[in-house]
Amino acid sequence: MRLPAIAIAAAFACGIAVGLHPAAARNASCVFLLASCFITAVMFLSAGFVLARFDHLVPAAVTSLLCWGTLGFLSACVAEQPRHPNHITTLVEDGRIRLQTPLRWHGRLRDEPAKLPWGAGYEIELSGVDFEGELRPIEGGMRVSFTPELDSSPLSELHTGDEVEVAAQAKRPQVFRDEGAFDRRAYLAQQNIDLLATLRAPQLIKRTGSSPLTAATLLAHARAKLRKEVDDLCAGAPQVASVLRAMLLGDRSFVDRAESVNFQKTGAFHVLVVAGLHVGAIAFVLFWLGRRLRLPRVWTMVFTLLLLLGYVVVVEQRPPVLRAALMAAIVVFGGFFFRRLELLNSAALAALLLLIFKPLALQDTSFQLTFLAIGCIAGLAAPWLEKTAQPYVRAVRGWRDVTRDAAHESRAVQFRIDLRAAANWISRRMPRRVGNLAGSAIAGSLSLTFRIWELLVITLTLQVGMLPLMARDFHRVSLSGPLVNLVAVPMIGVVVPLGFLTLASGLMLPATAKLLAKPLVWCTSLLIQVVGWFAHFPRWSYRIPGPPFWLVLSFFVVGVLLACELRLKHSWQKGLLPGLSLAWALSALTIAIYPFSPKWVKGRLELSVLDVGQGDSLFVVSPGGKTLVIDGGGAFSGYPIREESFGIDPGEEAVSPYLWSRGFQKLDVVALTHAHQDHLGGLTAILENFQVGRLWIGREVASPALQRLEELARKRRIPVEHELRGRAFEWDGVTGQFLWPGTAPENVATEAKNDDSLVLRLQYRHTTFMLPGDAERPAERQILAESNEDALRSDVLKVGHHGGKNSTTLEFLAAVQPKVGIISVGEANPYGHPSPELLQRLESAGVRILRTDRDGAVHVLSDGQTIEITCYVACSEARETPSSLQAQTPDRQQGRKKQ
Known about the structure:
This protein is α+β, with helices and mostly antiparallel strands. Helices cover about 50% and strands about 15% of the residues. Strands 1, 2, 3, 4, 5, 6, 7, 8 and 9 form a 9-stranded mixed sheet that branches. A 9-stranded mixed sheet has the order 17-16-15-14-13-12-25-26-27. The chain has a 7-stranded mixed sheet with strand order 18-19-20-21-22-23-24.
């Protein structure tokens, strides 16, 4: 077998995938299961040796692969073992440590304090916490941020490895409990970050012990110095400095959201992630430099590997960097022993080694994309180019030398003859010297054309081959990716080596570094401008729902068959190749256009109250499929400088993924109740990610955020309509009535208020929903005074203002008479929502309470007679008529299973 490592790595990965299946994971800690897996693996291995001894090679290969698959299953079961009892996550989940109040945390700094756009950041390896009068030993990691005030004293000087004490109220990373939402908690856990905290004053962090001088501390100091040097060399060009920090050192802290989105839109986000392309460029330059220095083959390999290792330890040992460095090391090291190294084999060997040491990496999107990219290049692009352009690329080399013709295949020989004939024809009609230069220019132009064609084929293959995972995990299709990468990929090959040469010069020859910094800044600025120019074409990038599993599976099956056909067929133009190519292209096209209908229940009114933290976002679907999104959530607190550029965006991380998980690409209406950040913040992403029919708002407010939202709506040709009390609409038998705000004031309000909220009541046959936004006591009194009882009574109430005590007053509650109250509220929010007084009012009225911080997204379905309620995490599921909702049957814990 020419590619044995692929079969072994695939078998091991399949075993891990089976072991990570929920059914297997439930029994992963069973000693009997683990022992059985180990015995089974030994039996398969023994059987393989016996069969191979008697020359039964095929059965021996099968049993060997079964052995590897069993070992993969065993490794997944071992990796899924419970955390240590003293891990902070375990302690918090078990209630042995409570995070409701500030605590004193003990630990050591993992790295140098990070300079951030809004202040400073610290990553602490926790060792203990003072809780209930005693120091408790703990494990885990905490990230602390500090935003200095203008009159605050400076922070004490801290360094890597220092023992520190921090007095702060920590919290677990925010997680949105909605279908399809981005799991930020799991993302940070992969970086060993389990808690987040904000330092209120510099005196609350202090050093309790100095760090010893070790290799790790020296490397951390070097990384900090390099970051500062990038800033100094790019003084006056902060945008360039932020991109260079990301490209060279893997620090994306200063790349704001707008810049990051531009790279995503153009399919060039890999430029900002230190991974395979950057490591490959460094390795290539090092290997080339070793050859130029005429080092022996062994010393060229040692020179390349040692400097590559130095690059990795300086940049930080993050998984993408380690994967790329391991791949490069295998290629360099393997090339010393083999005349022709098989890239697929090398990649499979690297994947196998990584999975052996970290089986859970198989679930990491970054891991999947890395090896999928290698598979596309080595399995599809390389063999296709070998059969098309590569013979001509080789033919251009030494094209004047007739004696080399015999080393080429017939079509390449004919190409060389034609090239010499053309050069001779030109030289006879020009002076000899000019004619020779013209011939060389023709050969050089052809060589450059072939190289551009190779790069275009590779980037196009990558764009198509990675499309399913990009659509599944990032919901984006970039049509400009191949064109942008024609510029971006070569520029990475220039910027990364030049950048490190500049940084190295800065340590010894500062004047030389300043000279080198000028072309470095110019090249980086050109890259940013190219990306920004392509990103401003709206139709060249768009968002789509993730493709169904069967389509992704069929895409990869056809892709593997196509790769096999390209490698195994001698006459590649015939046979299955055209059919497989067409099937692969059609699968990619189906993924890119997503022609599938969204998921909704015909004939029923649906209300989903989504979990967006401390904010509001509701999704309504009419019985005929018309859609309405009310509010998009938004950060209730954030960084004082350009908060919208660096904070968490619930519209992008929660609301949009939820709608994509349902297959929605179009929204009939997006409504904003009022212009507070926790309702408005996420709507920018909604307008950008979906085709929106109309934007509804209430009172006009002189809010910069609202003005930007309306400007975006006009730019996307979305009509903006102001809705007031007395207006109504009808969708598929559903009547919507606006109860508030009242008549519009003559002047634009100077600031947004809770009592400006749109209050909407939906009625479908005999069931009604009341959606009051953040309306408080004054607005509720006006609504009560101007409405009769029948116009307010509702079966389901989205409780106003996140359960604040000044909303949902006794009088309003008595008029609405809800059977179910849903509170949209953030976990451990700083406002104390929902208010105990409000909860008491609801309980006294016999209202069944559901909360997004506890139950996750709450979904309500009504056929006009009955109401069904399900939750994302676990809530009681009821199916009752409105008149009998209060007399409920015992709850059944059959909420939606957490994905």
